[in-house]
Design a protein that fits this description.
homodimer; 428 residues; Rossmann fold; Dihydrodipicolinate Reductase, domain 2; Alpha-Beta Plaits; 3 domains; 14 helices; 17 strands; 37% helix
Chain lengths: 428, 428
């Protein structure tokens, strides 16, 4: 059988895993696609660099164009990262009729629709399972497993770094700064952790998942984002005492034909299956009208898990190629995008207030909630452990952002409230 | 666009769900397959029966052959159940070039290879996602999501009835008989619950999953089975005190090129993600060499969750039909089946003994384990709560069945052992 020749852009962590799987599982892979798979050419930054894997040096090049323009290569596997320059490589590869497998969430979140349109035009495949939640086949699940259902909610722990940090803070009662430092030392967090800890990485992944789940073109700017850098160990301790775990959740919801997508630290009821997803693991919870609650759990990053998804995509792309159906299976988003206006977005809130410790304060505060039609699920007043104020901890029922903004605005004019210490979304 | 005509065999719980989804989600489904989907003819036992759904009475027939021989029907959806007669219907439908979607685990576990061979011969599709774990797209995940990986272990809670019973026993400390009665009253268990509680239903599903995961033809007789009817509330109470939950687990394992598949009540470490899957929910944990630990969770039965999988299969089958690739995507098992011999199967054991309450007994017993090379992870001796014996609770390290059989044989000749009360597999 004539081998299928593959070009690889990038030989970092994931690229190395791809080479390992393609070489190590060659027998199984050939059985699945009907011919050998050969990695023909690999673009790297520096051909001289020492590597964890033996690769014939003839295969290496420092010029990505050499891979993209290679006449024998049918499929390009892009695991180099980057956005603008990488987009140029991908578009040129598609122009030349090459199929694409990519693990690049930034690329797909920012330029996915442009790339997929070009692919459709050129009848090429673009597969990107590894771009979200590493080894968990969540993109296939949304496209095929739930093709029959109408999805109403996707909640994801899709960033391992922040889940590691929050898990450690929760289990060991240590501060954000301490754990971040440790995560950086262990290689779980980057030297500049902004993209992870401020929620941007998760937001990109949620844009990809929401696009697939809601059949509409969700862009990064549609996702409201806040990160975990201001979460304190006290916040987590309050969460646990009330029966919640603090998680950085991406949440995409649909109500009728309107959607909303956000990423924020969220207090999740301990009984919810996503609350017990700990450490660097990822999980995506999906609720469909017919299927109900489902959850998909696994490693969200790392050499081999991510490479598993990349090579599974490669198998699919090669099978399509052999069946002559490349580029014919993708379904472009077919629904108009209608975002729920900010004010109408409703959820439950946790609010921690520091107040004067005197009579009538609680009455004043609950009166404000009543005035703006925010009903309360639980209210606890207790002495503050650290200073002479009292603390009031409130969990609301579903409340609109518009009404909660009014409540908070009103709080500012209230002398008895010394500080609105924390406000979090609550789920489950 | 010319509609795709579908024939339905059965209009029970799942069949009703299929009609609801096909009618209710018609707009989305058409967007996915490119033409309307029409349920043209439905075979039922009794056309006069009152139903939960309005169906044009012209569509109903009491003769399945009328559906199978219908010239305009391209796809048969089989949700009637049954085995031998149903196999005849399916084989005849394939003979006539019709594609099949089935939710029938019994059929697929017993005659899957015969049906899939006929399908390959006739270039027809046979999809059966709904046959295992209801709404969880685990079959797609094994076939496509993990096509690149070598799976070493599949552990499934794949029977909702028994999981409901064990969860209730565990959470409420009640007996098997009490919960079974309640489950029957609630409709979670059949009047004759044998197939569920004795593990046969789970064994059929594990045969299907192991066939896909290990690429070899696993038959029902390859699965060793024991059910939950002899699990006592005391057993569960011991399990919990030691940090385990009792679950009916299907376990398929591969060691090098040998496999073993079993279903048995198993004590699972509480920290394992599958230990917290409760009630009628199902979950399948999959370990791959590259991807590591993953788990897939959702409703394992019920009208709408199961119908979600059936209609997702219908979408896939229709898309293949339109792309002209029907029957070309299935990969037949390509590996020789080599079962690990019974004696070589190794796992951890929990053993509860009732013994004479006198000096030297523990030494005698631990000596027997040592003699047969079974090393112990923990040993607890305590007074028996209910009678004058003492209890000894032992958890072993991995031990071969051969050695454990010898240990148990030796126990019989030991006067100080009054009773080997319970023996369970331990996981995690």
């Amino acid at each position: 059988m004539k081998p299928i020749k593959v070009g690889l852009l990038g030989l970092g962590t994931v690229g190395t895993g791809v080479v390992r799987i393609v070489e190590g599982n060659q027998e199984d892979l050939s059985s699945q696609v009907g011919s050998p798979i050969v990695i023909e050419k690999i673009a790297v930054k520096n051909t001289e660099k020492a590597r964890n894997i033996n690769v014939n040096s003839d295969k290496l090049t420092e010029d990505p164009w050499e891979v993209i323009r290679h006449p024998d290569i049918d499929v390009i596997v892009e695991v180099m990262g980057g956005v603008d320059q990488t987009k140029e490589y991908i578009l040129e590869a598609l122009e030349r009729g090459k199929h694409i497998v990519t693990a690049n969430k930034d690329l797909m979140a920012l330029y996915g629709s442009e790339i997929l349109a070009k692919a459709a035009e050129k009848r090429c495949d673009v597969y990107y399972e590894a771009s979200v939640a590493g080894g968990i086949p969540i993109i296939r699940t949304l496209i095929e497993g739930f093709s029959s259902d109408r999805i109403t909610k996707i909640m994801g722990i899709v960033n391992g770094t922040t889940n590691y940090i929050l898990t450690k803070m929760s289990q060991e009662g240590v501060s954000y700064e301490e754990v971040l430092k440790e995560a950086q030392d262990l290689g779980y967090a980057e030297a500049d952790p902004t993209s992870d800890v401020e929620g941007l990485d998760a937001a990109r992944k949620m844009a990809i998942l929401a696009t697939l789940g809601f059949h509409t073109n969700v862009e990064l700017r549609d996702v409201s984002v806040s990160g975990i850098s201001s979460v304190t160990k006290e916040d987590i301790s309050y969460a646990r005492r009330l029966g919640y775990e603090m998680k950085l959740l991406g949440i995409a919801e649909r109500q009728d034909d309107e959607i909303t997508i956000s990423v924020q630290p969220t207090m999740v009821k301990k009984q919810h299956p996503i609350a017990s997803v700990n450490g660097v693991f990822n999980a995506v919870y999906v609720h469909g009208e017919a299927v109900g609650d489902t959850m998909f759990y696994g490693a969200g990053a790392g050499e081999m898990p991510t490479a598993t998804s990349v090579v599974a995509d490669l198998v699919s792309v090669i099978r399509n190629l052999k069946l002559g159906v490349s580029g014919l299976k993708a379904i472009a988003p077919y629904k108009e995008k209608r975002l729920i206006s900010d004010e109408e977005i409703k959820y439950k809130y946790f609010i921690l207030l520091h107040v004067d410790d005197k009579a009538g304060v609680l009455a004043q505060i609950t009166q404000i909630f009543a005035e703006y039609n925010v009903s309360l699920a639980s209210v606890v007043q207790q002495p503050n452990e650290f200073n002479p104020d009292a603390e009031i901890i409130i969990v609301t029922h579903d409340a609109s952002k518009a009404n909660m903004d009014k409540v908070q605005k009103h709080f500012e004019s209230l002398d008895v409230i010394r500080k609105v210490k924390s406000v979090y979304r609550v789920e489950g």
